[in-house]
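Researcher: Please translate sequence to structure tokens.
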Amino acid sequence: MTLLPTPFEPAPGVFTLSTLDTVRPERVEPTITPLRDVAALEREWRDLEERANGSFFLSWLWIGTWLEGLPTDTTPLVLRGAVGGRTVALGLFLPKRGGGLAGRQLFLHETGDTGYDGLTIEYNGLLTDRHWTGAALSTCLSCLLRWIGPARAVRLSNLTEPMARAMSAATVGVGGGAVTRRTVVVYQVDLRPFWHGAGPAYLATLGTNTRAALRRSLRLYAERGAPTLYEAQTVAEAMAFYEALKAWHTARWVARGWPGAFTMPAIDAFHRRLIARGVPTGAVRLCRVSAGTEIIGYLYNFAWKGRVYNYQSGFHFPTDNRLKPGMVSHYLAIENALARGDTLYDFMAGESSHKPRLAQPTDAMVDLLLLPRAYLARAVELVRYVKAVLLTRK
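Model: Translation complete:
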């Protein structure tokens, strides 16, 4: 795959999505170029970050740390949208390593390697200026789909539902097709109703059984000492918490027959870099939860623009099943976020028994496959349907 600087002239007219921004007389000019100067991209990305509503996973803290861990022979493609010379959209695409059919796919902020992609980016998408989101998405995706040609596809993982709808609409608008590969429910706690004691306490809003189980667990842990949450204050302390969390997390998953999230050396190295950079700014929160001198568990959270993202955890599970280390730890983290004035505690995607008990389901995460021709999308859907029918007949 030859990666050449490829400016692309969009079709005449202004591409807009009325639900995301208003019609403007200016035009978004898209380009696709190989990444050559990471320092220059960092300056450009951080500038756009200030004008965007992107998630923590679209911050330079995450993206820059991810870039640093890519193989040295990997060259990402930079999809860029600009208006009057000012960048209004950015995204990094990588072709999957290897030839054949696999090499015909581009991945957004992922590599196509299931090992390194075990980092699990969430709230993925293009980073866009909040005033240009619709036009930037439409024009940039039009550019990308025409650039890749009819023999390639674009894989997008863990988009929000609004982002997925916008990208699907933009793709269909230029004659392409979008296939939904996976949808996963997200659980969140909106903290704003509990600010300043304006409504009932968070605990009082939980279901009857959950509330009873949590209160009982808090009471039993209190016999060892008051349950408390402590956030690491230094990088060294955070690294110690990370090691302890990793050990408990891995032991739990190995017992279930899975390796856990931190076993790959490249992923472990990524997290060490992220913690070293994020703890001093407050964007990474490594927390220890204890009852007296007994450690209950550890939480690995991100904090970004008022939102707390629960990324990973590691708990000590006692034989007494009345003790709920996960529920207690998250409850204390939610109360801590509320005291700090955060707006949301986000459990993100993925299944876990405590999520529906402590939070509410919201918009899902969506994985999309974008194809440059609509008939290709129909063919993919047909193949999936035939496979599903055959599986039911076995």
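Researcher: Any highlights?
Model: The longest helix spans residues 235-255.
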